[in-house]
Design a protein that fits this description.
Blueprint: H1 3-13, E1 21-24, E2 31-35, E3 38-42, H2 44-48, H3 53-60, H4 92-100, H5 104-111, H6 125-145, H7 174-191, H8 203-221, H9 234-272
Antiparallel strand pairs: 1-2, 2-3
């Protein structure tokens, strides 16, 4: 069984650990635990040996498995700190991992910092999606205009989609940057599955979102040129109208003259007959 599967299994069967799991380090495979401002990594094997909440706290406080006795602060007196208080600690990669291990509490804590519906006071996944989409568009537009790569590492973006890494020289065409940047938005579209009462996106919905996203980015980068229509001076317009009216009057008079001559000719013919 791989690490992710073992983590999901441990998470499901041990409710006490759920609020402490922040994510998983994709490079080392270690599990990231966080509590009261403390953060540490632990192997899945060591995590599976933890059987209660007190042990988690002692591990985070570096007192776990120490030989000398220690006096620990009662859990009831410890005020847990919301994980999302510090933006630089949460990345899009954390959102992805928490979604994969179905850590609803972890996502709740992460979203509390920036995606609260002002009307209801509750977490709003749609607001999170809007914010991340806007920030991602800003980042890819900047990458294209300043000619550097759009980084594909989710750990280089904070949880709101803002880039916190170091730009590197561009090696891809602009269209590649635009299309690949949507992956950052996709992270939250997939996280929406944890909030079925607010939004659910099928693969078709996500594809449609991607098309809309690409159109938005292109519209910013390559705005259509406005067609400048020549303006006709008022005086010239009035003159043209006057000339047209005069022309119609001349034609009308000419028609009357022709009609009169026609009548005269007809009368002459009748008299001769």
């Amino acid at each position: 069984m791989d690490i992710k599967a073992r983590l999901i299994n441990f998470y499901k069967n041990n409710e006490f650990i759920q609020k402490y799991i922040k994510g998983m380090d994709s490079n080392t495979g270690e599990i990231i635990l966080s509590y009261n401002g403390l953060e540490k990594k632990i192997s899945i094997s060591d995590l599976e040996n933890i059987t209660d909440e007190t042990t988690v706290i002692s591990f985070l406080n570096n007192t776990y498995l120490k030989e000398e006795p220690v006096v620990e602060q009662p859990i009831s007196m410890v005020e847990p700190k919301v994980i999302s208080d510090e933006l630089d600690r949460e990345t899009l990669n954390d959102v992805k991992i928490l979604t994969e291990i179905k850590s609803k509490s972890g996502l709740d804590n992460l979203l509390k910092g920036f995606a609260i519906n002002e009307s209801t006071g509750l977490i709003d996944i749609n607001k999170a999606i809007e914010i991340v989409e806007k920030n991602t568009i800003d980042e890819v537009v900047k990458a294209v205009k300043e000619n550097y790569d759009f980084d594909l590492d989710l750990q280089k973006y904070d949880k709101t989609g803002k880039y916190v890494g170091t730009p590197s020289a561009s090696s891809r065409i602009d269209e590649e940057k635009i299309m690949s940047s949507f992956n950052n938005v996709r992270v939250y579209l997939e996280a929406a599955i944890m909030y079925p009462d607010q939004a659910q996106f099928t693969e078709e919905d996500i594809n449609n979102k991607m098309k809309e996203y690409i159109d938005k980015v292109r519209a910013i980068l390559y705005p259509a040129k406005e067609v400048v229509r020549p303006t006709v001076p008022v005086a010239e317009t009035e003159q043209t109208t006057a000339n047209q009216s005069a022309g119609f009057a001349d034609i009308f008079v000419l028609c009357l003259i022709v009609l009169v001559y026609a009548i005269i000719i007809v009368n002459l013919i009748l008299k001769l007959a």
